[in-house]
Design a protein that fits this description.
- The protein is built from 4 helices and no strands.
- The chain has one domain.
- By secondary structure, it is mainly α.
- The longest helix is centred in the middle third of the chain and has 21 residues, at 47-67.
């Protein structure tokens, strides 16, 4: 059996908000997580998922000062990177 973490545990470990985690999963930025889930579904996070969130948090911290939008500018930046370089899933 694989060790997994709850969303709250991932939030505490990575300093990502619950909203950020949900938004990034819905946008497909965390490949190990489903993008569309029903109400009441509890995500379980693997070590690979948590590593991906750490990478997203690094990008968010870099983007915030550039956009003046906090980490809210992350989505637009990620779309630009994907369109330009094709680096995202």
């Amino acid at each position: 059996m694989t060790d997994t973490m709850s969303t709250s545990e991932v939030s505490l470990a990575t300093h990502a908000t619950l909203r950020q985690l949900d938004t990034w999963c819905t946008a497909g930025y965390v490949p190990g997580q489903p993008t569309k889930i029903g109400s009441g579904y509890r995500r379980r996070w693997t070590a690979d998922d948590v590593d991906e969130v750490h990478r997203l948090m690094k990008v968010a911290w870099c983007v915030a000062p550039l956009t003046g939008q906090g980490s809210g500018g992350l989505g637009e930046t990620m779309r630009r990177i994907e369109d330009t370089y094709g680096l995202l899933p």
